[in-house]
């Protein structure tokens, strides 16, 4: 899969005269008495600048940047600095671009310009998008928060997309897909066709990685569908060409995986033009490389080797090592197909070596997988390396998931701290004492009012819980009474009907036994004895059924076990319960029972929804003569119980229920280990 190809190919002739003229203009500008404002915003759009090579452009930008600190802090000059940062960025001078952005952040903060602050964070994230993705994610998160304050949905969507992009390249495809969905919801009616295109493409890429090829193709086709709108809104031919090639390669890749080779071949040939070969060699190499691969997979080997070698030559000349890896791999697979094992191993080893240099985990895995099949003598070595790498990647992905979640949290914490500092700085005003008094009065009034409301709600809740408990108890009693009635009916049937008939039959046999024939007499005695045994068994059954084994009591333990059994039927996790047999439930109040029931119920739901656990154990133990200890323990993913934000609705509800009975709830949890909840009730 190809997500984004190189957008620009530069073929600029160096002209020193124009460079010198540009430098001279900057020097003259900087020699003015008060260089507070730059009004020549066409500096970066001038023909002279565009004709410079990269080295001269950087020198030109450095000259401008040298006096930028003396500029007046106004919106016009900040726009100029944003453009300066962008130029550094496109010239791959990320550190210099970041330095300008830091300066812009300070200037924007001093000017209290929220949009410029957000833009600064956005640009700072761009500087880190390929080197430190966690840092990029952090700055995008900061920008998103500020854009939300301004209700700028398109900018919010762009930041969400950027974060999703970081997650994608860290291997968190599911999380990335969720984020892109959020971004698409914000821009579904937007005119930003480029953001729509890139979002659809990234969504398709996520589904491709998740091996959901139908969904992947759906979004790739949606991206292709809006290409005509991009042509209307954007005049950058290089970028549009890049998008065309990207769409064709992505669609062809999915069709190839679904073995629709003719459709894949047709898609690639649609962009394989003479102009592509002449003006955009990198994209041309990508297209012919994919075309060769599709032909090979379809069984048509004619011209495949030539296509692969031509694509490899172009990629090497362009210095695109990532593309070279793919070409080596393609050649390795091709020679394996034609039974040239020596050549196949040669190219696959070159692919592995370059992938290791690039630290490209996916490419390393792919090369190892192919080598383990083709180079069978060394297969155990390759398999071992593959397993170790795969395990480490799983661990890294898990850590990355936690890392990005932690960034979300830490960003919120920083924002809250900044809000507090801002409030403190603005709090010194005329009439401060009076205002504080008023605030205190309001707070006290609201506190008292909220406490009264809380008490009313708690009382209502307690009443409702007791009513529910009574209903449960009444229902259980009715069930027990029905069982007893049925038992008595069966007992009467056995005693009055069957037993009497058996007794009569036995008596008849006894009479017949008076016959003098010894054989008949012995046989009949046997039957009489047998009937007596049956009679005794039926009498015992009748007696047992007639006894009030259910005694009309409310079976609380069975109620808890029924709750457990219901959850086990869902087969999400295995739940078990162990209840101390010494607990006398008749002596425990209904409110305590229903509170225990609700806490257990809430804990089970938390395990199902959030814990991702395989097993959960509930234990009810008597502690001394006055306390019950409820222990709920799972082996799920856990969380950091020391952090203040780990107060979800489920835990809050359990804590509140425990508080109503002056009980204590203790939570211990560790990431990757599980969660243990303990509640102590007085009885």
Structural notes for this entry:
The chain is mainly α. Among the domains are: 457-546; 556-682, Histidine kinase-like ATPase, C-terminal domain (Heat Shock Protein 90, 2-Layer Sandwich), CATH 3.30.565. 71% of the residues lie in helices and 6% in strands. It contains 26 helices and five strands. The chain has helices at 16-30, 47-50, 54-65, 75-90, 94-110, 114-128, 133-149, 153-169, 173-187, 193-209, 213-225, 227-233, 237-257, 261-269, 274-279, 281-298, 304-318, 321-337, 341-358, 361-374, 379-425, 432-512, 518-546, 556-569, 590-611, 649-660, and strands at 574-579, 615-623, 627-634, 664-670, 674-682. It has a five-stranded mixed sheet, covered by helices on one side. It is flat, with a radius of gyration of 39 Å. The model is unreliable at 1-41 and 546-553 (pLDDT under 50).
